[in-house]
């Protein structure tokens, strides 16, 4: 193992090493595609527009990082023909050595979801939404994917225009029916978000609502924390602590933001917060680590897509490694005696320490490049796919007007 | 009944009238006392500094409004000798015709609560906090008060200095023990607040945490919503809807704010939001209206204290009357058909309508002054108490330094 | 004049009437078009997709309200061929009796603006942006439009990726060159916005930056306040007061929001705030009222577009009428003596008063329908255009994927 | 010089070293005193309550850090007899080797400032406030202190209760008169804050207002940025960049916060933001570094006061050293070519690097302890003053009630 600096003991390093051994993070297929804001998309020549291209890109990311061998799928975009696309996906899994990760139904894009999907006052539309959810569950089971990640974007834009109460009941019904269809190894992850695309009220606005709905649905339903889905000033690590305490944390959609759900790359705005979230997880003794799905959910509107993904995986590893450096026994002692400055210094010591040498050593010991971003640049991969894909991509630009 | 205007039918007016008949709002004893910010208090000559003065002021407010016959008590400030002050309170109740309202323990002022009260790492300090809570329960029972309103101000100021997880367990233990002591007609209301006086984390930060703690404590524990205790952008009426749905809404601490927990007078910043909160309650069909405690919790730092209280009661009545004007059947129909503009106009019609004539008529029919604020001015009450109290108050100014 | 209620004197009514006489509000062409969020657009059969349809819709709104005879144009969308579209616009002005309002350049949609337009590190791209601005100025002059409304959406998504400082200098250069091209009766309005579509930094983030840039550009540059472009908790009416004090207020983009730049209909979330903004304007004695451009800037993603526009104009009139009711002399007296409760009651008296009867009377005296929304419904206009446009609109749906 | 790690060149280290050579930070006298929230103060045995104790504590901090030889004074608290206390302060300067830093007038504590000081509608009260400001200027001149730091806490709590416009004029008048009294080497720093202690409007709410007021006052007036005085989501480093661009940055009040003006220790919540602020300053080429006053303004409500101060100075140095590591030439190149990921990695490389070894080496080369906090613990200083001061401090506890 490398010499970090005098302050990092052999024991510290072993703890970090062991933590790295068990850390995996899932990448989203849509992170390789062109995305944008309501004001338009900036098209990138290297963007993936087919599911095969997304598998190829994911394989490249995993070849460089070694910790991201699953890819989240978005049903509508990646399996446009629904269940009949399953064999194709399975073929791609074999070809690229990437397994299907969480399955993401789409409840926001169809024109009939204008006033809501599973909260829509129309029983027929709610029924259609349920069908899509049941298909998604079936797809997940066929692909041996554990998690169905449910983001319900329903809400309303104006006070008085919808009954908040009645819509709770609608949701409960659909979620229970979806839960009933889950296979023995499947889970349903309920995501929450305070606003956008609805602006006045979002039907699942916070972790409390997501938790209630998950419980009503059944024991395989857990809460999914998207780090960008909180009001300004929220203490996210406290929510993580509560969900762990209640045995209700299903996993994360990782990203960063400055104001709203900006879907920026993890740790780009507030890396200390990411460190604190990892700390809550690593100091937990009640939850099976593998029951927490670490997933990326970002929109790489401006950054190169493959570059952004590699950068995110590397940053996640490094912030996680910092959290693994925390000396829990010493910290607990100082917290108990309310030695504030000493406790904080002990905690922050781990954050200040440059863990990159040890992460690099870990990578090299697994025959991975020490610096995945540099390796990506040297590989010429992005240039290659840019050439292959650019003509096709130039045509697909959409805009606000 | 008065003629509001052409758009308000006889039936509408009866609905409002009936709603007014059942509306009562509790005033807090501390609303009559000198309060301030961390930068100092501005002393008012008419401020109350004894419990008798607070009872006198409450009686004056109720004489003018007729809907505020109970006064919330703060154990530490109003019963400084604890249980032995009970007879004195009972005597004041008889003298002033004001009953004791909710009982408010104090878990923030003692020096030993520096690092927390019921979440303090010290078992001894937690024990002391529990004792105070048990005393408060006993006081409540002796005074025939239904609710013990628990604001737990515990938290920490710096990441890493306290274990968020461990403190959850501490709280659960104390709250369960407190619940066990409740009499058959008593309830425990669990309040939440995202920040202040602790700045990094508050142990009960949001309604989800309050709800979990209430449930663990037992069936007599409900959630208390203080309208100033939310992050910017929170949809408070949605939380109210959820708590009603879950049969977990215990009551309100009403006030208004622009940014943080400013404790301004109700409706002074965003009256439309107050209207929406009342609407959720009035459109609820599952909860016993009397199970919802409507309480004021404000700090009248600059406004005259009795004036501010009368103004708040009157404003609460008027915004509540507006909400009572909403045509629920028509609104439900329009919500179901997603007729957004029509639904909003139906909803807002009630808000735009000037209900003051009907509220005035209701007051007069109960031998109350049509305009309580004007009546207060004419009564000379504030001048009288200013003269009586001013010398005493001049001495009690405290400051930041 | 109608009898409002006892509290509203003949003199009050005359003041409101006179205020209504001078109030005009501009509607945006894009408010009639399909808009959405980054997650997709919900297509409406009645949406306008051609400039002629937008003129027709604007004419309909003005026929019903009588106060919205100008329509803001978006250069890229409404004059896709640039200056050569001017004769076509002039023809439509004559046909529909609607004049061209403010001219809105587009600095965000072209692929080359990925990293900025007038702040782009590339001198060539900045030059292209300047060309577009100069064209916009020329279009404005040809159409006898006073204002070029400049929303610069430039910014960056990640710390360190752009030089904030250097970009200020780029902007100053382009804005000065644009100002130099303004005709004698033209103005340049500089808009600010704290985030979106850029997430880490927006080059013109607040009114202070907009003001500095306007001053550097020249005397015909003023600040444009979009009510949705502020951080949570901002006191917008205070900014309005400061801009009036500095003689730098050019106008408004009116809309409402709960959290971010939600572009909801005016007054739908916080009507009291709109009232307060109008109050600052109506209590100003230094600015020529006509120098303030009142413009709507909303996205009617869910509401019917023509309905939403009519509703907004009516609501703006009514909230403005409430502000006109304020008794300035009495209020000034009470503010001076710091009679807080009395001052607030005097101020709010105007807000509580139902001014709809007087606004209806004003409309009828101008041969306009008393209730424009009802009149719209009775006109069958929306049904008519839905039939005419629906086939065309069904094809144009875009989405996130 | 020490070996940081392979990535840090000799040249990098020299740059950091040179940067450390010129960095000084001022500590506030009130950081050693008991402070609290509106809910009460937790008294500390080691708290300073006399000006001599504050000088002693400051001397101790400077003995350990070597970069904090000036102490900001609060006129009301530290010179309670005003100008006649000057000789006493001068004596303490000589005794303790600490010079007087910025002079802080107090415009919030006197009872007559209830409705404002320099914005008060009463000309007499404004006159009194001006007198205090003129005294403060004179004190500053006598003490050879460069800066008078003006925090104007004026504002209002309720819409309509004060004239925002009129109060701007009041302020301008007083500030101009104060500026006129400044000596040739004195400056006036105008601070801004969006809320607290006033809740609806603060008269100097943001940097734009502070800048306007500073300009009106005169050329010796600059803007003071308190890092805790911003709305959630504000990009503070952008404001710093603008103030540098406009040659209007006077200095900083450093602290950290999670939600409001929490006055926590610098870098405790968001260290990356502090790094970014230092980066803007270090990449500036137009401002004289010495014209920027780096000052701490924190309330150590829970942390030990001397410990918190030492910790803050050390953290400031370390985050500043990280910023000094940034390779400006390389970064500028990557920003110009919009190489986002590379630019960000270059920028963040400096943040990830553990600069503590080089800061320690710098300290040792100046005969300072490598780790000031450890040295403080070993010195026994806090225990010593606790014993000396504890009896006195126990008596001085104040509270909310």
Automatic annotation (TrEMBL), chains A, B, C, D:
SUPFAM superfamilies noted in UniProt: Xylose isomerase-like (SSF51658)
Domain of life: Bacteria
Gene3D superfamilies: Divalent-metal-dependent TIM barrel enzymes (3.20.20.150)
Positions of the Xylose isomerase-like TIM barrel domain: 79-279
Pfam family, one: AP_endonuc_2
Gene Ontology process terms (BP): L-lyxose metabolic process; rhamnose catabolic process
GO molecular function: L-rhamnose isomerase activity; metal ion binding
Coiled-coil spans in chain: none
InterPro entries: L-rhamnose_isomerase (IPR050337), Xyl_isomerase-like_sf (IPR036237), Xyl_isomerase-like_TIM-brl (IPR013022)
Keywords assigned by UniProt, alphabetized: Isomerase, Manganese, Metal-binding
Name of the molecule in the record: Xylose isomerase domain-containing protein TIM barrel
Species name: Granulicella tundricola (strain ATCC BAA-1859 / DSM 23138 / MP5ACTX9)
């Amino acid at each position: 193992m490398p010499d970090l600096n005098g302050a990092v003991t052999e024991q510290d390093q072993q703890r970090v090493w062991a933590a790295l051994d068990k850390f995996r993070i899932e990448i989203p297929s849509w992170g390789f595609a062109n995305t944008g804001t309501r004001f338009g998309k900036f098209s990138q020549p290297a963007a993936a527009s087919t599911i095969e291209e997304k598998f190829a890109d994911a394989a490249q990311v995993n070849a460089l990082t070694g910790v991201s061998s699953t890819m989240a799928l978005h049903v509508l975009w990646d399996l446009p023909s629904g269940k009949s696309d399953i064999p194709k996906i399975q073929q791609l899994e074999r070809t690229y050595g990437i397994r299907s990760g969480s399955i993401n139904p789409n409840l926001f894009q169809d024109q009939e979801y204008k006033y809501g999907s599973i909260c829509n006052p129309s029983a027929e539309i709610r029924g259609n939404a349920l069908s899509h959810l049941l298909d998604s569950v079936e797809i997940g089971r066929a692909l041996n994917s554990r998690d169905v990640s449910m983001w319900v974007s329903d809400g309303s834009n104006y006070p008085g225009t919808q009954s908040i109460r009645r819509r709770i009941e609608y949701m409960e019904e659909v979620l229970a029916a979806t839960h009933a269809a889950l296979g023995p190894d499947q889970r349903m992850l309920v995501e929450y978000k305070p606003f956008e695309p609805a602006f006045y009220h979002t039907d699942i606005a916070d972790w409390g609502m997501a938790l209630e709905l998950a419980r009503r649905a059944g024991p395989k339903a857990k809460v999914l924390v998207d780090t960008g889905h909180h009001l300004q000033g929220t203490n996210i690590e406290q929510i993580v602590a509560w969900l762990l305490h209640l045995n209700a944390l299903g996993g994360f959609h990782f990203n960063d933001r400055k104001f709203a759900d900006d879907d920026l790359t993890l740790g780009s705005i507030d890396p200390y917060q990411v460190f604190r979230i990892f700390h809550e997880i690593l100091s937990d003794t009640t939850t099976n680590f593998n029951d927490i799905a670490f997933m990326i959910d970002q929109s790489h509107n401006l950054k190169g897509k493959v570059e952004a993904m590699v950068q995110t995986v590397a940053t996640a590893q490094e912030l996680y490694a910092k959290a693994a450096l925390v000396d829990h026994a010493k910290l607990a002692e100082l917290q108990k005696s309310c030695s504030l400055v000493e406790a904080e210094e002990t905690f922050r010591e781990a954050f200040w320490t440059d863990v990159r040498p040890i992460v690099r050593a870990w990578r090299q010991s697994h025959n991975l490049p020490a610096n995945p971003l540099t390796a990506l640049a040297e590989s010429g991969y992005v240039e290659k796919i840019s050439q292959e894909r650019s003509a096709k991509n130039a045509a697909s630009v959409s805009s606000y007007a």
